[in-house]
Amino acid sequence: ADTVRLLSSCQVINSVVNVVKELLENSLDAGALSIDIKLENYGFDRIEIRDNGSGIKAADTAVMAVQHYTSKICSHDDLEHLVTYGFRGEALGSICAVAEVAVTTKTSEDDVGTRYTLDLTGSVVSQKPSHLGQGTTVCVLKLFKNLPVRRQYYVNTKKCKEELKKVQDLLMAYAIIKPELRLTLTHNKVVLWQKAKVSDHRMALMATLGPNAVAHLLPVHHQQPEVSQTLTPIVIDGFFPRPGMDCSLASSSNPDKTFIFVNDRPVHQKDILKVVRQHFLAQYPADSALNRYPTVMLNITVPSSTVDVNLTPDKTQILLQNKVAVLAAVETLLVSFYGPGLG
Ligand code: ADP
Ligand code: MG
């Protein structure tokens, strides 16, 4: 059974960035407004995430890392109306199978916090009082300690640096979509990046990408006209570069500056990216690459019952039921903002 467990855990948790993503989403699901992420040795020795969220109720702590335990959905119906990032109850248990995990938590009802040490099956093996304030701190030590080949694949190679870059990119996406969130990333005791709480998405873009990258951005909004009463309209909010501006002025070290979200979830939607890219390619046929890859942010809101985020364990690839309509809406927005382009 331990082998089966290890195998399935490997699929959810296959890198540092997966661990960070799962723990960050748990913190966001708990309503945290302040999250501190600390890595040591690129996360392979230690990943620690501290949040100021709701904490874990005493009744839940014994089972929190038990495979498939989740406090977030109760019925299949809930699955159709997902508002939380997590719902499969897979992450904490899977991380326990491949690392040493301790969870410290305190709710507003608890007089004092408790630190729980978990074993590789996700069971609590010991607990002791903790002085930490309200919220949850998850500490993950020695990632892949029982998977030497995988550990070796990363550690002492430049792969571990790539992981750190991926973590930074991931945090950027959440920083942009969650203006109210305060975030810090520390590596080997050095603060690599931090973002303060801000009031809106433009400020969040500025805090994340720098003032130059957002100086030329204009807000866009599109609501698809209601086709029928049964179809809730698709709503798109975001930022596009001002028409005709030279985006190369807004240079940034990040070549991939197109941030796409569906219902506040950062996603890799190749088709949507393609529509956006093609439009800028048509606008700037032979110009610098920067003009063709300008900073763009799109948050697409669709009824949650029409999104299937279960496609891949990390939930970044999603299935859109009405993808054709979503692509058409993005296209309409681009055309109405920039004109039909050269294409
Ligand atoms: P899921 O997020 O799919 O519910 P997880 O394995 O990620 O599953 O977490 C299991 C449970 O542990 C959650 O449902 C939640 O009750 C609790 N939990 C985990 N992390 C936190 C956190 N940072 N704050 C509050 N509760 C948490
Ligand atoms: Mg989760």
Counting helices, strands and paired strands, the structural category is alpha+beta
Write down the CATH class of the largest domain. Answer: Alpha Beta
Q: Give a quick account of the main beta sheet: strands, pairing sense, barrel closure.
A: 8 strands, mixed
Q: From the coordinates shown, what is the CATH architecture of the largest domain?
A: 2-Layer Sandwich
The fold-level CATH name of the largest domain is: Heat Shock Protein 90
CATH homology-level superfamily of the largest domain:
Histidine kinase-like ATPase, C-terminal domain
Cα gyration radius (Å):
21 Å
- What is the mean pLDDT? 85
Please report the distance between the alpha carbons of the first and last residues: 57 Å
Bound molecules: adenosine-5'-diphosphate, magnesium ion
Residues in helix, %: 25-40%
Proportion of strand residues = 15-25%
- Tally of contiguous helical segments: 12
Strand order of the largest sheet: 5-4-3-6-2-1-7-8
